[in-house]
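Letters spell out the chain; backbone shape is given numerically. Both lines appear below:
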Amino acid sequence: MRSTNRFWTLNRYFATSLLVIGSGLILWALLTSFGTLLSVEATVTAGVLGIAALAFLQPAPLSVLAPTIAIISLSAGYATFFSTNTIAWGSAILAIVMMAGILSYGFNLRQALRRRHSQWQ
């Protein structure tokens, strides 16, 4: 019981609420106004909320870190794709890869994978 109580600190509650709000914002934006400027702004805001959540979750478990980085990266690609005047698949893919790389490096995804791998053996 005590280890569970230590896990749920104020930082964890705040980070979880940021993730929930960000996920809800993405779903709302994609379901109600796909491809519009409003949805681009909503996905960028949700991405920023996700980055803030990861900052408050450090050290974040791999089960949260990897999907959150993927969602933030896809949000950056979505915003890049729909905010340009021409349809630019290359720019969107580049934004996804760059965002995933920056976030993975910044939030130590590699170290989390190594820790997880060492527990498997």
About this structure: The mean pLDDT is 85. Helices lie at 2-7, 10-32, 37-56, 62-83, 89-106, 109-120. The first helix runs from residue 2 to 7. The chain has one domain: 2-120.
